[in-house]
Write a structure and sequence with these properties.
Length: about 220
């Protein structure tokens, strides 16, 4: 296990994890501002179509917003861009750079999340030095076309049990089902449309706040 070598500087990974989507909510910056205002603990910039050059000014602006508010900023997939703008970390899916390679490039003080759909994948990601697991899609999702079939709450529980790493549940999470992901043991809940499709920036912030309140209920 490589775990002890890279967890010393890892922050407390818990709470609402908002992912931006350029197709929703008026774009990345509006969703980012709303998520931060609503109490998100982690913010991920996810854009599968724009070039690094196009995303650079947006990523820099979000880096400023997150730094000023103490929110963790993670880039989806784009390690080079994440390092260039001083993001806190990167989130890697099955088709992205391998966790081990990313760790070699980024060093031990960089946050690396890995998407997993099975307990075995979670164990491998932990062995390869990921900092957290993105487990899903728990309920299925319309915002990520390659997310695959929903894994359900039982598999989420199994993934949580299979690793010592914090687990972020993702996929179709909203105000009606977020509590069930916490009950299954997830330390974080990732949302896209539950915030980004809520309306204007104030409504998006209110949607995030509602999810945070549910998340923090005893």
């Amino acid at each position: 296990m490589h775990q002890s070598a890279h967890t010393a500087s890892v922050p407390n990974l818990r709470g609402l994890y908002v992912i931006t989507d350029e197709r929703l909510g008026g774009g990345h910056l509006r969703i980012a501002r709303a998520g931060i205002s609503g109490g998100a603990r982690v913010l991920q910039l996810r854009d599968k179509t724009a070039s690094d050059a196009e995303l650079l000014p947006i990523a820099r602006e979000i880096r400023k917003l997150t730094s000023n508010s103490g929110v963790l900023f993670v880039m989806n997939d784009r390690l080079e861009l994440a390092l260039k703008i001083g993001a806190d970390g990167v989130h890697l899916g099955p088709g992205d750079l391998a966790v081990e390679q990313a760790r070699r490039i980024a060093g031990n003080d960089f946050l690396i999340g890995a998407s997993c759909g099975t307990p075995e994948e979670a164990r491998v990601a932990e062995h390869d030095s990921a900092n957290y697991i993105g487990a899903g899609a728990v309920f299925g999702t319309a915002t990520k076309l390659d997310a695959g079939e929903a894994i359900g709450l039982e598999t989420l529980r199994q993934i949580v049990s299979s690793t010592r790493l914090p687990v972020a549940a993702i996929g179709g999470i909203n105000a009606c089902n977020i509590a069930s992901t916490i009950e299954a043991g997830a330390q974080m809940a990732c949302v896209v449309s539950a915030v980004a499709s809520a309306g204007n920036e104030i409504q998006m912030a209110n949607a995030a706040r509602e999810l945070v309140i549910i998340f923090n209920e005893p």
